[in-house]
Amino acid sequence: MAETKKEANAAFDLFVEIYGAKYEKAVAKLVKDRDELLAFYDFPAEHWKHIRTTNPIESVFATVRNRTRKTKGCLNRKTALAMVFRLMKSAKKKWRKINGPNRLPDVIQGIEFKDGIKQLQTAA
């Protein structure tokens, strides 16, 4: 939850120092994926909340998982796909809109962000 990538790297290094000896394999995996874990700092700050969470994926599939467990015995491939499609379409109605939708064109155009702040391009 650091404000800048520099602060996040410092906190990451401290975490590795504290827990590296006790949880060697887990820390090694985190260190290996460090760049991916901190990649959200290269996006608009308004989008960080959405990038950090996996809840939208988990909540959609929780709905599907609960329903398919109850109807376990009476599904073939075709009806299962139809049911999953309808459940996801229904779950879509409850999804929250993205914060900062006005920043999406900048992201799509590949404009650089540093610590969530748009970087101005200088003409050469």
Automatic annotation (TrEMBL):
Family: Belongs to the transposase mutator family.
BP GO terms, sorted: DNA transposition
Protein name, entry field: Mutator family transposase
GO function term, MF aspect, one: transposase activity
Annotated keywords: DNA recombination, DNA-binding, Transposable element, Transposition
Function of the protein: Required for the transposition of the insertion element.
